[in-house]
Design goal:
Layout: H1 2-22, H2 43-47, H3 57-66, H4 71-79, E1 85-87, H5 91-97, H6 107-121, H7 123-145, E2 150-151, H8 152-169, H9 180-189, H10 202-226, H11 235-244, H12 252-283, H13 285-300, H14 311-315, H15 318-331, E3 337-341, E4 345-347, E5 350-352, E6 357-360, H16 362-366, H17 408-425, E7 426-432, E8 436-438, E9 443-445, E10 449-454, H18 460-468
Antiparallel strand pairs: 1-3, 2-10, 3-6, 4-5, 7-10, 8-9
Helix pairs in contact: 7-17, 8-12, 9-10, 10-12, 12-15, 12-17, 13-15, 13-17
The structure holds protoporphyrin IX containing FE.
Length: about 475
Amino acid sequence: MWALCLAALLIISITHWVYRWRNPRCHGKLPPGSMGLPLLGETLQFFTPNTSSDIPPFIKKRMKSYNITDPDLNYFVFQQEGNLFQSWYPDTFTEIFGKQNVGSLHGVMYKYLKNMVLHLFGPESLKKMIPEVEQAALSKLQQWSCQDITELKDATASMIFDLTAKKLISYDSNKSSENLRENFVAFIQGLISFPLDIPGTAYHKCLQGRKNAMRMLKNMLQERRAESQKQPVDFFDYVLEELKKEGTILTEEIALDLMFVLLFASFETTSLAITLAMKFLSDHPLVLKQLTEEHEMIIKQREIADSGLTWKEYKSMTFTFQFINETVRLANIVPGIFRKAVREINFKGYTIPAGWAVMVCPPAVHLNPAKYENPVAFNPWRWEGVEVSSASKHFMAFGGGMRFCVGTDFTKVQMAVFLHCLVTKYRCEAIKGGDIVRTPGLQFPNGFHVKIMEKDTRNRKQRYIAADA
Ligand code: HEM
């Protein structure tokens, strides 16, 4: 009898729980859609990788059925950061990136960290960085031109990593006994994986990669602290100065988490953007032609052809910026931006309950045919005369609102300077690969192999004179 009662109770509880799962409490009308399976929701469909450049099938299907992904709501979400919505990423991300990473911090601490980063990657610092970026690009291109074949994503990731690690922590991979980037590679490979932390799983390798990288960063910071006082040269020095200040809100853990996020955020994203840029150049000869002309013109207008890029020249690269915008629009490097509703939110007749997560989906915005004609086509000329210095309702490759990416200008400098070096001094031939595999977390280009060749620029000056005559 008791057993029967218990079984009945269990069935009633489960039924009630499933009912509640399917019909969550809400004081208004929920946005349309399905709650999927109990506990799992629609996670499996959501994570299905795809290789098309178009809007992910998961999103496309729901756009058709429910007419979701409203640009006004995306914009509203960004504008309401810290008020109705708050930056939020799934628990596994927080586990992986550190509980005190900049994306999970809010309020005063968040503003403080953002200012620190802007100190390093703001316009004043970037102006000084141009020669360094140019040198790094030239030396890598020279190195690649001596190879039969170069796998571009990995090669550019190593270039960007070396540059950023030098700026942040004066790290030199040639002089270090341990390879910091290797730990990041292990980390990235397991970033989008089932969160099962047992030896052999990708998630375990990811956590180990983070652990090793954090250990190296911590050791470096401690070594630096023990060194005698000298002129601050990198971000570590800046952090140490801040840590010494009376009443500082910065802690060593927060500084190390920030360092980790900055290294990751900078090299994984920009290297993908440069790889895709080169793929687009090899697929679109007219674009390559116009880009080359813009950069040849910069050199032509100099008194000394090899005098090195200046900030003024960088700022004059109109077509290059169109090309970069178009590349990041189609690349959709960050395919989803997460927020949490701080309280119940009513928008256009729907209610988002407090505590619910929302995902802004940049691909749906960037590939919207109502805004971009023939949206999957690569067409840098569509940006002619369009000023894109921050986010808009129709362009959010770097996020939007208060949390707009602090590394945007750094990325643009690196891309523009790299392209300048490439098109004025080298030729690139695609050998194989280059398709992109998309998941809701990251994009992985399928081995894009190229051959880099030096251009003959010896008689450039004479060519200009002849062309002018
Ligand atoms: C193509 C290159 C890049 C893309 C597409 C990109 C994209 C984004 C996006 C979409 C966000 C907003 C995330 C959110 O709102 O939750 C973001 C934030 C951020 N990005 Fe980037 N990023 C790039 C390069 C960089 C670089 C080079 C750095 C480092 C210097 C960087 C550092 C950051 C940081 C620290 C944040 C967090 C800002 C915050 O929470 O306020 N990013 N990025």
